[in-house]
Amino acid sequence: PKVDLVVVGNFSFNILKEKGAPQYAVYWQDVKTAEKVDERSVKFTFGGGDNHELPNIIGQLPVLPKHWWATREFDRTSLEIPLGSGPYRIDSLEAGRFIVARRVEDYWGRELWLNKGRHNFDVVRYDFYRDEQVAFEAFKAGQIDYRDEHTSRLWATAYDFPAVKNGAVKMVTMPHSNTLPMQGVIFNLRKEQFRDRKFREAFIHLIDFEWFNKMLSYGLLTRINSYFFNSELAASGLPSKEELEILEPLRGQIPPEVFTTEYKLPVTDGSGNNREGARRAIALLKEAGWELRNGKMTNVKSGQPLSFELLLGEPRMERFALPFKQWCERVGVEVRLRTVDPVQYQKRMDEFDFEATIELFANSLSPGNEQREFWGSKAADTKGSRNTLGVKDPAIDKLVELIVSAPDRKSLITRSRAFDRVLLWNQFFVPQYYSTTWWVAYWDKFGRPDRLAKYSPRGWTTWWIDAEKERTLSQRATERKT
Asked: At residue 91, what are phi and psi to the nearest 5 degrees?
């Protein structure tokens, strides 16, 4: 039977924009209308301006089955398995424990060129663990086949169990050319005390990254110093002539250091005694209206001591949060750590109910419309948006629109570098760290392509079960038991 894809397309566009996650309304805000042309065609009319990415964004529109949703509330939480059209369908699930996806044998896109060699597993099961160590023990026991490792301590010290030594578990380090996320401590700018740029900068100087990397991360990490780290979009040195053409009209609206000083993070001697950083932090806090009184950092006007809650969504974040708390205490700042479960954390973040937290902003190699969601003034007032910091800055809004309207790759690079400088000098993040390689561990039952993708080398959707390896692995397990 024929299906009117245009009606379905119109329904998908409208329902996602009206009742979907806030990102859809932001991404598609320049789409004025969606009209049926004929049975197989739809016409999208864009608003004014040069949004060169928008046709591609619209091409990514998820197509939802209108007839299925006709009897259900789209914006109501449910565990009912929805009707989809992808290579896998959800076979079973238990909330908070697992989801099982089963391959669709008559998948409509199986023979498309972009799917050749992909989606090779009949069944994929995702297990959920609230505790990182429990998840790792499950992997060691063979209950989990594949693991992306995100903790340097585990990668450096914990993979010494017998299965690794006898080759049953493989450890692979995969370099890549993707941008790395900006990750670090952020403050909620909706609260008055966090709005001073000098205030936020003070905490950057308190970080003793060199000690942390040496003592707790085994030297495996790199300090993040760009919102487009590990890519050609990252700013370096002083602004180029082309960047200055973008930045000069904003002089007086953006930090003056953008024009005069290369952005560099402070470097310590790694001894764990960051006296220079503490002195600099105290001086900056004084400029922001705080001073030490009887060992407590105190607001000069109100007399209130400086104290804030650092909200965490998972226990593994405490590994950085605990030293951060100690660094702050050295200059009289009280940090109250609060770790909540992921559901409560997401709810509080959606409602912007936090003082400080550890956040992550991941950028692609082709930034565009999503920057409105990250940094736009409108998004700052939209609950559930990615502008968790609460940035409302006309100059940043203008730079975002310049990125969205970039006519070619060269101009996108220039505009992204200029934007990067402005974000960095606003001191929105207290930058943490990241690894420039991916760490992957898996039980040796898979075949995988010899040639890895440049930007996504760990793409396990291109892997497959190697029957001989699986048989050998099963034999090893039987031998161990006997």
From this structure: -90, -40
- Between the alpha carbon of residue 408 and those of residues 225, 402, 421, the distances in Å are 25, 12, 20
Task: Go through 459-468 and write b for each residue having 16 or more CB atoms within 10 A of its CB, e for each that does not.
Answer: ebebbbeeee
Tokens of 117: 């060699």
CA angle 250, 198, 277 (to 5 degrees): 130
CA 6 – CA 145 distance, rounded (Å):
41
What residue has token string 């205030």? 199
Q: How many CB atoms lie within 10 A of CB 228?
A: 22
In the chain, the amino acid numbered 76 is: R
pLDDT (tens digit, 9 = 90+) per residue, 307-363? Answer: 999 999 988 899 999 999 999 999 999 999 999 998 899 999 999 999 999 999 999
Give me the residue label for tokens 């119109």. 10
Only one residue has tokens 């578990």, namely 169
Q: What is the pLDDT of residue 1?
A: 36
Residue pair 145/168 in contact (Cβ under 8 Å)? The answer is no
Token code pair at residue 61: 């529109």
Scored b (16 or more CB within 10 A) or e, 357-374 reads bbbebebebebbbbbbbb
The label of the residue with tokens 């692979």 reads: 172
- Looking at residue 223, its amino acid is R
Residues 6+ apart with CB under 8 A from 56: none
> Cα(36)–Cα(50) distance, rounded to whole angstroms?
24
Long-range contacts of 53-60 (CB under 8 A, 24+ apart): 53/366, 53/368, 53/369, 53/404, 54/30, 54/369, 57/27, 57/28, 57/368, 57/369, 58/28, 58/31
> Is the overall model pTM greater than 0.85, yes or no?
yes
Q: Any residues with CB less than 8 A from the CB of 220 and at least 6 apart, and which?
A: 152, 155, 156, 213, 435
For the chain, how far is it from start to end, CA to CA, in angstroms? 57
β-partners of residue 433 are 223
Q: 3: burial class by Cβ within 10 Å (0-12, 13-18, 19+)?
A: exposed
Cβ 191 vs Cβ 354: under 8 Å: no
E strand or H helix that includes residue 77: none
Q: At a CB cut-off of 8 Å and minimum separation 6, what does 36 contact?
A: 6, 7, 10, 42, 43
d(CA 397, CA 348): 25
**pLDDT above 80: residue 297:** yes
Name the one residue in this structure whose structure tokens are 């896998």. 88
